Amino acid sequence: MLKPFIRPHVAHSQDGPVVDFSHVTVRYEGARPALDDVSFQLWRGERIAIVGPNGAGKSTLLKVAAGILQPTSGRVTVYGHGASGHICIGYVPQRSQVDWKFPVTVSDVVLMGRIARIGLLRHAGRRDRDLVRESLAQVGATNLADRQIGELSGGQQQRVFIARALAQEAELLLMDEPLTGLDAPSQEAIFEILDLLRGRRITVLVSTHDLQLAAERFDRQMLLKRKLLAFGQPGDVLTPEHLRLAYGTQLTVLPGPDGLLALGDTCCDGDEHDHA
Ligand code: ADP
Ligand code: MG
What we know:
By secondary structure, this protein is an alpha/beta fold. Helices cover 30% and strands 23% of the residues.
């Protein structure tokens, strides 16, 4: 069992929200902000999907939560503290943002999660190596340990990044479109691992283009288009009205099984298409 490691100077407040965005605005350049006055709270052990068209600000929101990007205005806390440099945050970037040619093995990638914990100047000890092995086993990637990360399939890569977050003993996992481009069995394998994380009450925030998966496999959904259009249960969030607001007229709304909307994914929103 992985024990949470808590640095004394960033003692977590356990009774508050895990993630707290208060009036967060991000402006890169130009008049229109990428995130516009976004406020929400996430609670321990929740699994949340962020949906919204391309350019909606999903990746930006995840980077702000990870502490990689500072908001232009507003306040973000993770376990009651500023997000930047938080050791308990595991962040998995969008696949297109990773340099897959970087010559590094799977166990190196997972060990990086330990280095985040122990600091660069200390050698990885036996416990670190044990944790790397354990984490790889938990995502079913033991046999991949010595492979180059760039050789793996998309699903295997995502599993390895989850293993890194496990080795890091992350309590908040942020994943940017981990399901995109995966076949159904690979997606299923990711959800099995997410179930394991849920058992440990790790909070998981995932961006996705797949509205059906978002509705069926997550506790709550966030519908984003620069502003947070809706946040809550699928029946309240993924309504035809909200979806038209987010996706415009390109959306195909179909009657789905058990009353759920089965939705054709339209990812392009005219001028905002960023080919990400
Ligand atoms: P999503 O992940 O939902 O597709 P992003 O967060 O990537 O949305 O982008 C939101 C908006 O911010 C887009 O209009 C995008 O072009 C812009 N943007 C994203 N990253 C940058 C950046 N580094 N510099 C300037 N503009 C950016
Ligand atoms: Mg994105």
